[in-house]
Amino acid sequence: AVERSDQLNELYRLLTAKEFQTRMEGVLLLLNYSKSSSELISTNIVQIFDVFVLRVQDCNKKVKQKALEVLALMVPTLGDALHPVLVSLVGAVTDNLNSKQVGIYAA
């Protein structure tokens, strides 16, 4: 339980960092956890995605694009566990559909 708590705290710290490179590390760590510890993510999905959705809407286009790409990779892995966060995810993703940035629009 302590290890899980430490993992979550590190994930939150990275996802909410001031530096965009650190936020990108957090996005990649979330992808890693979704593959290697999907139960950890599924169990804490609402708390994690409350922070992750902010990265999908990030002011830095690199972070935003990476978050959208990672989200696409996580959906098949997390599947039904995403139900509690679908509304916020759909809203955040939809906001990016009109992006003039080709990478963001494509992601």
TrEMBL record:
SUPFAM superfamilies in the cross-refs: ARM repeat (SSF48371)
Xref: Gene3D superfamilies: Leucine-rich Repeat Variant (1.25.10.10)
Protein origin, superkingdom: Eukaryota
Protein name: TGRM2 protein
Organism whose genome encodes this protein: Ceyx cyanopectus (Indigo-banded kingfisher)
